[in-house]
Amino acid sequence: MSLASPIVHHPFKFGIAGYELTGFGIAVLMSFLIAQIVSERELARRGHDVEAAAVGDVLFAALLGTMIGAKLYYVVVVTHNIRDLWSRGGFVFWGGFIGSVILCFATIRYKKLSFPRYADVAGIAIAAGYAVGRTGCWAVGDDYGKPYSGFLAVAFPDGAPPSTVGEMAAAFHVAPPAGANPSAVLSVYPTQLYEVLMGFVMFLVLWRVRDHKHAEGWLFGVYCVLAGIERFIIEFFRAKDDRFGWARCPNLVDSLGWTSSDLGNGVKIAPPMRGIDMDPDGDQRLPTAIALAGAAKFVAVRLPGLHVRPIVSAYVSQLENTASEDFIIDRHPEARFVIDHMAILQPNVPPPPAQPWADLPKVVELAKRKNAVIKISGACTLSKEPYPFPDIRDPLARIFDAWGFDRCL
After folding, report:
1. From CA 302, how far away is CA 314, in angstroms rounded?
2. From CA 399, how far away is CA 374, in angstroms rounded?
3. pTM above the 0.85 mark?
């Protein structure tokens, strides 16, 4: 017997008396049920009969807090649309976790019981409930991973949303393959099953150390550590517009909720490498397909507000590469040109060149082209003196005089 490649998933749902029931709803119900059973039996085993008898009330508070917190998190952090409060989907685990902790704490305090005592068994119960609850994500085809075509890859043609090229690009900013049909279904990592497995492992670890000799509440702290590790691992596989990754800082533009209109005409993207030398007298300086694909992926992940905007190629060359005075800028007076880094080659690391301002006369001469502006960037890399770099003041003054402040960026 061999598995299909990829495995094609279809949602689990059925109707009763005109009402549609899904695997997600059943899984959520079962997750709270298993959490209640674990909590009651563990508290009773420890001899805390009063707390065990009140587990039903605390679990009801947890259920209510989970529903409210999960929905609020979804609206405030993900969609920013208050109408999604009444949508059927959109329950985020961490929002539900925060909401349930707050309402459970309030309920326990109201009953004048010990919150650390409940928290100690809650670590075990939450891990068990999490493992069961994540089966609901699998049942409805939600919360799947990034594109993947290896062993146990799964396609979700009827997922929430479907794992098509178009949906994954729009919802998760996954850069589509070149020439891909937007309606084509992609296979992905079945991250829901990974989470089920890791949730069960967390439960086993916590169950193993439940007879600890530490203060009450310690086991909940262990759960938080394990849950953090689990989430850290799974985030490398999930199809989400994540803010963090390897060697990457938080996505400021995305986290502030900026749109393409907030970003003006666009942004400049420069690859962290130098290509071949380019001659500004020639026309044939086309960027490579690999460079354009890399720029598209960067925009989709880091600047989702601009992912619908076109990518415009910028042809960069050093002024000293020219063999004549037949500049392209003179052949296209109607176009606006940006002279970057003052048109002077700048070192990536110290020290500066022996004659860093040797091309300054050419830079001053370029100021005669009224269809150009100049960026005064990286000037400090040409200084041979420490901050405040007094030796670059005179050269910069010559540039300012020639170009005027209104044409300096």
Report:
1. 20
2. 9
3. no
